[in-house]
Amino acid sequence: MGLLTGKIAVVTGAASPRGLGKATAKLFAEHGATVVITDLDAAQAQAAADDLPGEGHMGMACNVTDKEACFATAAAVIEKLGAVDILVNNAGITQPLKIMEIAPENYDAVTDVNLRGTLYMTQALIPHWRERQTGSVVNMSSVSAQRGGGIFGGPHYSAAKAGVLGLTKAVARELAPDGVRVNAICPGFIATDITAGKLTDEMRAQVLAGIPMGRAGTADDVAGCALFLASDLSSYCTGTEVDVNGGSLIH
Ligand code: NAD
Q: Is residue 250 part of a domain?
């Protein structure tokens, strides 16, 4: 029996074919969950949902920086599927900027998607979870939050992902009496499309040299951790940050 049989999961930013969200959605579906993939583009989200194993998955457009869109998405999913058990706040963007290169629009873009989006999508489901006294949230932070960048994203990305950790812990504390668990994953260097071809061979070699396991992570490495945190396997874990980084930060 799957670890998520009968569960309904929403995964944001999960249309990217080689991304962490899609790999997570696929593993959840393999474990029996009905999965709602949300992303900026409705057709891409639907195509990703259609690609998942099993029946009944949905794809929807939802810009996580838009509070109304997040609340409308949550309401639509609850109406169509009856409930939401799991939320993975995966949508994120990054930019390889140095501190003095960060313009106001860079700051806004990166903090809005990574941090504001995580807040809004979580808020959208809290009334539902308070009613049901159950829920599990998995937030995608980053090793950049813990070690101060050094991979690809600039200081504004590190700050946004550190914000995600603070938000995770504070919301975990506030929602624990309601039976809702909130945890974060801190992936290290994972091979996906988020760097949009801007990662040079030199940068790659430098990053790999700092990874004791000697390889980049895969999206499946992160999905496995998301499955653990989303499922009842982690029933006494809340407010945790779990490293998936090949040993690149050991603390
Ligand atoms: P990706 O670029 O493959 O996927 C990110 C997805 O988010 C895309 O499908 C994109 O369309 C979507 N998105 C962007 N803005 C959005 C918005 N406003 N609303 C909804 N969706 C939006 O990236 P990925 O590597 O799979 O990253 C997934 C998450 O993991 C991100 O939060 C990222 O910061 C984090 N992360 C990635 C790595 C890595 O090495 N790949 C490391 C640490 C953390």
A: no
- How far apart CA 194 and CA 92 sit, in angstroms, is 8
Q: Look at residue 226 and tell me if it is in a domain.
A: yes
Residue of 66, 38, 32, 16 lying closest to 196 (CA atoms): 16
Under a CB-based contact definition with an 8 Å cutoff, are residues 52 and 30 in contact?
Answer: no
pTM: 0.98
Nearest alpha carbon, ligand 1 atom 12: 13
Q: Can you tell me which residue has the tokens 């813990």?
A: 146
In a domain, 251, yes or no: no
Contact 139, 82 (CB under 8 A): no
Atom 2 (ligand 1) nearest CA: 194
Retrieve residue 152's tokens.
Answer: 């690809």
Residue 249 banded pLDDT, cuts 50, 70, 90: very high
181 C-alpha vs ligand 1 centroid, how far in Å?
22
Residue type, position 136, single letter: S
Instruction: Give the structural domain span for 82.
Output: 8-236
